[in-house]
Amino acid sequence: MSVEALNYSRRVKVGNTTAKFVLNRLADRADERFSCYPSVPLIAAEIEVGERSVQRALALLRELRLVSDRPQYRADGSQTTSRYTLHGPWDDYAGTGVPFPEIVTPKQARAELWAQAPAEAPFRAGTAAAVALSGDADEAKAAAQRAFTAAAKTVAVKESKQARGRKAAAAKLPTRKSTEAVNDVSAGEEGVTSMSPPPATSVSPPPATLASPLEPTSTTPTTEALAPSARSAGDVRRTGAGSSSCAKKSGSAATAKPSSSGERQGANVPLQRYKEADSQATACRAVEAGLPAALVALLPYGHIPKRNRAAVLDALDSRTPAQLADRAARRWLAYRYEVALHDGELRAPIGVALELIGPTPYCPNVDCEDGIQDGHVGGRVECTMCVIRRRERRIARLKGLPVLTARTAGSRARAHECVDCGRPFPGPVPEGSVCIRCTEEAAAACQSAAAQWTTEAADQEQQAAEARLQAAAELARLEAEEKRKGDAKAADAEARRVADAEETERLREQVAREHPELAVYAVQQAARVQPAGTAGTVRAARG
Q: Where are the domains of the chain?
């Protein structure tokens, strides 16, 4: 099979379906020389036509110069299947150099069509540009009126949707404990509240002006048509449950007809919703204060999300926040959430919080407190419905029927905790009230400390030895320095003594020369002082 011949056979234009099929079959069987030798009966069987049709198709392909055939003969002279050679870009289109015509695909046709520049038609009739270019004042006025009507209809539809939304929200609000009544109606302005909109005024569309769409203008019909809403697009989006634009549909606006008490109550629905939402948030905060602090720290921003407030309010229908706090503290231990928190297995803190404060899941009795009738007010008697339920479950088990299991929260004391890490013990309390994990950690810490102490002792010994060597070297240096200084001082003293002796002798000799009488007197005095044994020495000196 020649892929190049097969792809080209699909693109070339033949003009005959049978001939195109025959060319495709020849290309599918072509070899590296773009030739093949299938028999006519084989081609006819493959394309499901007669042999005569195949022969006519081959004749057409020869006329279009797409195929050339060459008869083949056997050794005995009998003729066998002919060899067909396909022509195309590989042989320069049968040596002619002129490409064969090819088909145009839809994609190519679209590309050629899109390449053409589009011709612009006039503005659509009724548009602002068409009206401005027409110069017809009546048509311009009618167009402005249509724009005003469309804008007013849009505002009316939006206000209607907002009114329906307020009614639906007010109908879905659950009935809670009554808060203080809301009544903002003043004595002189009955039916007008702080949330009421300003008096409605009739607004007529502005006069239409003829202007070219290409010329700037400060006033256009679409800009002034939004005047009845008295708000911009951003203000309409910011309009809440108590805005003036929404209050027009609620019947709270000041009208000529005095409003009844029911209408005044409907007029204050937005404000009631705000105040009721505040009271609900306060109630939820009171319940959250009774939850375990470790669980509250895991809640989003430390609070139960607003979408889960309904469950909290349902729990407050039959219990006070203090009673819910006692329930949460009891279930926190009974359901083993404290152990799960210490083990890092507490995955859904919001669901845990709702389960801690929720009613008894398996008993429809609102006075049942985890199997105890009036347990929230100090009751000690089992709930009758719970007793009946256990009896029915026991009977079902005896009959072999499937029984759903439910987790109950009986009254149990606080679980013993490890004195080191504070983790509750899942089973019996070990000796010393220390869990296995803390014991292993302590043993590992002791081994690490012993190894560290050994290393530190060796380092300290090495440092002490180095310090002793340094001290000995410093002492030897100081002794050598001191000895050098002593020797120098002794040499200086000896030199001074010799110099003093020489100076003394010189002075004596000088005095003896200048004052002989003094010399004689000195000798006499010395003789008196010296002992007798030294008299000969004195006489010898005198002579």
A: 3-107, 127-167+203-240, 273-398, 421-459, 488-543
